[in-house]
Amino acid sequence: MYKLCGSCLKRLGLQGNPEECELCGNIFEKIDDLLNFTYDVEFSNFNVGVKLDPETLENEKKIIEELNLPGEKTLKRELLLVLRKKLKEKFNKEIEMEDPDVIFIFDLKKLKVIPENNSLYIKGRYNKYVRDIPQTKWYCRKCRGKGCSYCNFKGKMYETSVEEIIGEVILKYTKVEEEKFHGAGREDIDARMLGDGRPFVIEIQKPKVRRLDLKKIQSEINNDNRIKVSELEYSNKREVIKLKKGKFKKTYLVYLDQDISDEDFAKIKDFREINQRTPKRVQHRRADKIRIRKIYKVERENSNCLKICCESGLYVKELITGDDGRTVPSVSSIVQKDLECIALDVIKIHDR
Ligand SMILES: [Zn+2]
Ligand SMILES: [Zn+2]
After folding, report:
1. Distance in Å, CA 58 to ligand 1 centroid
2. In 24-54, which positions are buried (b, 16+ CB within 10 angstroms) versus exposed (e)?
3. Ligand nearest 142 Cα, by number?
4. How far is the CA of 267 from the centre of ligand 1 (A)?
5. So what's the pLDDT on residue 201?
6. 297 vs 16, residue with greater confidence
């Protein structure tokens, strides 16, 4: 017969006198000390994790097998139940299994508690009204952020970005240094993002504050008239994954260097499909392949401006120019003129 503690005897439904436990090492007696930890980061719900010594787990397996006991009432399960209950009392906060603000990991081998402060996610939509800032922070390609003569010792290629304008305000209120920006695709640096904006989620790692006044944050971000954010709301990791996978149609306004005559417009308005090889301008960072992309609608907004609705992943500037034969056919090849795109605006992301 094995020597077991009172908790293990009771849990496994065995009779006997409590002794120094060969199964758990009397872990339940050590828990109260561990529960004295402090955690001064704001949270409203939590979950618990338990890390056991592999040796303890082996022992438990052996004992359960040898005594032919039902295996479902494991030490780990019991510890989780006890710890959840005790922490609920300690902090007076709710347990959240799916999306907890924090997970308290009880390392029962090292006898310490490691709080895992989960990321905070805030979603919204952004507009970009200028043609000289990128969506995300763009580190200097020579020094990668350290600062060198190429980047004027700024460490980055552009003064700011949509990410940085939004991030600055959110970081101030969550009291952290860094964020991650997740956009539903991105527009070219020189393209504006108009209409009802582009969805994004900003992830704040290890936030010190989670309860935010999102209305106030939104209006503070919008003091910068280069961009606008709207519909700020709390989000989660699942929505980031969904956002990154999403392939949405887009509608653009494409400003050309020449007017489109009625005759030319008649030739391009029913044009529906292209073969597009990776454009020269992005070849250094994207795989070189040929994609078939659909065009859903071509309208004439005014004499030198086309409104084009097309498939996700279609390169619109090259749809106009043909990119030296890499996009076939193109608006230029159909009308047999060398057309240039002088400006581009995204006016709708068809995500809803
Ligand atoms: Zn025990
Ligand atoms: Zn540099």
Report:
1. 14
2. bbbbbeebeebbeeeeeeebebbbbebebee
3. 2
4. 82
5. 98
6. 297
